Automatic annotation (TrEMBL):
PANTHER family: UNCHARACTERIZED PROTEIN YJBQ-RELATED (PTHR30615), UPF0047 PROTEIN C4A8.02C (PTHR30615:SF8)
Signal sequence bounds: none
Record family assignment: Belongs to the UPF0047 family.
PROSITE patterns linked: UPF0047
InterPro entries xref list: UPF0047_YjbQ-like, YjbQ-like_sf
Domain of life from the UniProt record: Bacteria
Origin species: Candidatus Sulfomarinibacter kjeldsenii
Pfam family membership, one: YjbQ
Name of the protein: YjbQ family protein
SUPFAM superfamilies the record matches: YjbQ-like (SSF111038)
Length: 126
C-alpha cells in the first residue's frame, strides 16, 4: 500500500489529488485502485476537475445539506462527521496499463471538512 499526505489550508476545501494517486499506482499494471481516507472528518470523491468553480460550488452545497441542529458531540465538528458519512471515505477506479481509467473530466478529490490539517490518503491496487 502507498500513502501520501495532503495539507489543507481551509476549514472546508477540495484538493485535487489525481496526480498523487496516479504516481502512487505507477507500474501497477491492471486492476482496481482503491483510494481510502483514514479520517472521520474528511472524504474522497470523484468529480470534475477541469473547472475550479465546481469544487467551490460543491463545498457550498455540502454545507447547505447539513441541517442546523444541535449536535451532542462536544468537539463542535459534528457537521464534518455528518458530511463525511454522506460523501464517503473511499473511491475505486479501474487501472489499465498502469494508468487510472478516469473519464475525460474526472479527477479524484480529497475533501477536507474540518481543517486546516495534515491528512493521509492510502492507495492500493488489487
Amino acid at each position: 500500500m502507498n500513502q501520501f499526505e495532503v495539507r489543507t489550508e481551509s476549514h472546508r476545501q477540495m484538493v485535487d489529488v489525481t496526480r498523487q494517486v496516479a504516481a502512487a499506482i505507477e507500474g501497477a499494471g491492471e486492476g482496481i485502485c482503491h483510494v481510502y481516507v483514514p479520517h472521520t472528518t474528511a472524504a474522497v470523491v470523484i468529480n470534475e476537475h477541469a473547472d475550479p468553480d465546481v469544487a467551490r460550488d460543491l463545498i457550498a452545497a455540502y454545507e447547505a445539506m447539513v441541517p442546523d441542529v444541535h449536535f451532542a458531540h462536544a468537539e463542535g465538528n459534528s457537521d464534518a462527521h455528518l458530511m463525511t458519512t454522506l460523501l464517503g471515505s473511499s473511491v475505486t477506479v479501474p487501472v489499465e496499463d498502469g494508468r487510472l481509467r478516469l473519464g475525460t473530466w474526472q479527477g479524484i478529490f480529497f475533501v477536507e471538512l474540518d481543517g486546516p490539517r495534515s491528512r493521509k490518503v492510502w492507495v492500493k491496487v488489487y
